Amino acid sequence: MNINGKPYRTIWLSDDGWSVSIIDQTKLPFALEIVVLKSLDDAVRAISSMQVRGAPLIGATAAYGAALALRTDASDEALDRACAALAATRPTAINLRWALDEMQKAVRNQPRDRRVAAAYARAAEICDEDVETCRKIGEHGVGLIKAHAEKKAGARVNILTHCNAGWLACVDWGTALAPIYRAHDEGMPVHVWVDETRPRNQGASLTAYELGAHGVPHTIVADNTGGHLMQNKLVDLCIVGTDRTTASGDVANKIGTYLKALAAKDNGVQFFVALPHSTIDWSLEDGGAIPIEERNAAEVTHMTGKLPDGSIATVAVAPEGSQAANFGFDVTPARLVTGFITERGVTPATPEGLRLLYPERSKAAA
Ligand code: MRU
């Protein structure tokens, strides 16, 4: 997607042909800074500190992290150590494990002197595949928005989204935002309600940034506003992303997603989840078994923002000494989800719906 008219991906191979460039998302929306990853440790740090985040992008960065590690040591042991270090960075997004499995498959059977090239090639493919997958999610999802646009005969279609599941969370396009970009580009009058998404504000700082850069009308709302908006018929549909979806259709996504799904159900608002195949955990049925990341409590008790003099500062928003808990994700049961938007089409949020789209994967897990 474009920033100031210049096309970007979130991750790319640098001009030197081996180091890896990323957009440092901890600096957005106030500065567009590129960081260069030169080692496994750099990749581990980028994922843990959330310089890169969002399930598909975490996977893509881990893939390049494995390639960087192999440059120093291409042994089986080094590959296993690198994958273990990368897998430990963030526990909820299954794309991380998926990408590392792909890297193992691409590299393990290669002779040592070909492993680095094989790793870089697979990492690049993972990135390219993600772009194409997300483009197709947009293609399949746009019909859902079009149906509302036709019903509303020219009035704006209001879509609520949570966290950031746009191109900044992927390599390009995004998952939840891909149908929205497509609808906007096709001339539909879309407007996005952007949940701020405390504690790290991925909605206010990232979703608003990328929608603004693409010219999509949007309004940031405090996290608890969604229910009120839905009661007052100000939301036509919700579209969110996911970090891990089970074979039965339960959806782990950024904390607060479940409450939006409950409000949507109570108000008869459609609640769609957009996802690529790499986010489905075929080994799990029950969403309650998904590991939920718990992060530093300081993310709840403090906020970072821009001061009037332009400097960036972190300030306390809670009394010193109060305890805070920081659960990164929650699980929305499949029964609250209207449907999944995938690269293979739109399907009901049921085990049968998923099996129908991915017959080969569900057989493999059986
Ligand atoms: O903690 P984050 O910012 O990595 O969480 C991101 C989300 O929850 C996204 O909604 C999810 O990864 C889907 S991204 C296409």
Question: What topology emerges from the helices and strands here?
Answer:
Layout: E1 2-3, E2 6-7, E3 11-13, E4 20-23, E5 34-37, H1 40-48, H2 55-72, H3 76-87, H4 94-107, H5 112-152, E6 157-161, H6 178-185, E7 190-195, H7 202-214, E8 218-221, H8 226-231, E9 237-240, E10 244-246, E11 251-254, H9 257-266, E12 270-274, E13 280-281, H10 298-301, E14 302-306, E15 312-316, E16 329-332, E17 339-342, E18 345-347, H11 351-357, H12 359-365
Helix pairs in contact: 1-2, 2-3, 2-4, 2-5, 3-4, 4-5, 5-6, 11-12
The structure holds 5-S-methyl-1-O-phosphono-5-thio-D-ribulose.
Task: Explain this structure.
The structure is a single chain. The chain is of the alpha/beta class and 366 residues long. The chain folds into two domains: 2-129, Four Helix Bundle (Hemerythrin (Met), subunit A), CATH 1.20.120.420; 140-365, Rossmann fold, CATH 3.40.50.10470. The protein is 41% helix and 19% strand. It has twelve helices and 18 strands. The protein has a seven-stranded mixed beta sheet with strand order 8-7-6-9-12-17-18, sandwiched between helices. The chain has a four-stranded mixed beta sheet with strand order 13-10-11-16, covered by helices on one side. Helix 3 runs antiparallel to helix 4 and helix 5 packs across helix 6. The longest helix has 41 residues, at 112-152. The radius of gyration is 20 Å and the shape is globular. The two termini are 39 Å apart. Residues 53-56, 93, 163, 165, 169-170, 174-175, 202, 241-243, 253-254, 328 line the site of 5-S-methyl-1-O-phosphono-5-thio-D-ribulose.
